[in-house]
Amino acid sequence: MVQLTKTKEVPEKLKVGVLALQGAFIEHIHILQRLPQVSLAIPVRNTDQLSLVDALIIPGGESTTIALVAERSGLLEPLREFVRSKPTWGTCAGMILLANEVTQVKEGGQKLLGGLDITVTRNKFGSQIDSFEAPLHIQHVTTKAENDDDIYSLFPAVFIRAPVISQINSPDVKVIARLEHSIGDTDASTIVAVRQDHLLATAFHPELTKDDRMHQYFVNLALESLGKRRKVA
Ligand SMILES: NC(=O)CC[C@H](N)C(=O)O
């Protein structure tokens, strides 16, 4: 868990937006509404809504579609600007959009927001029917299980047409989760969650479980990074 220093500069409450152009956004909003530090949780579809929020979640869905709709609605540049300095968490397709480099892109290329110094491989585990749930140890979120039978404190991560992080391209990127076991031809210890400064990315869908620990982690990270920014401002 990120430790917050209680100073005047650290905002107590957070306004969080969830990009709602396509994909699994409503589930994120429902979890955020349960967290005491979140004063506002809204879908973001335009620049007015984006300007209301302190932090943003880019949900799972289809990254090519999300990028296309963002471009058509004039949101691509405002989103790029937002993720440069404000806390943003990309889940699955959202993680793809936050990467600086993506492999297995569709013909004709794919627009990205960028920000994370990682290379992401899309659709690493196959199609929708190859979806699976895997218990994960996530740094700062779960505590390492005492023994193999004790999986209750691990995070139930749901992977749907999921990408993986195939390369870390900067020492500023911190790995926070890896697969505990191999899945098909994907090795155990493949990287599935990272943090770089104010940016967070997970290959899986934490909004599709009843476990709100990942959302709580993001809220803490966002409050901490906004607090730091206000202190230097
Ligand atoms: N569940 C998801 O978000 C899937 C991501 C999708 N495979 C993509 O490339 O955008």
TrEMBL record:
Belongs to the glutaminase PdxT/SNO family. HAMAP family: PdxT (MF_01615). It holds the Pfam family SNO. Its EC number is 3.5.1.2. L-glutamine binds at residues 61-63, 122, 160-161. The keyword Coiled coil does not apply. It is an enzyme of class 3 (hydrolase). This is glutaminase. Keywords: Glutamine amidotransferase, Hydrolase, Lyase, Pyridoxal phosphate. GO terms for cellular component: cytosol; glutaminase complex. Coiled coil: none annotated. It catalyses: L-glutamine + H2O = L-glutamate + NH4(+). It comes from Ambispora leptoticha. GO terms for molecular function: glutaminase activity; lyase activity. The active site is at residues 92, 205, 207. One of its GO terms (biological process) is pyridoxine metabolic process. It comes from the Eukaryota.
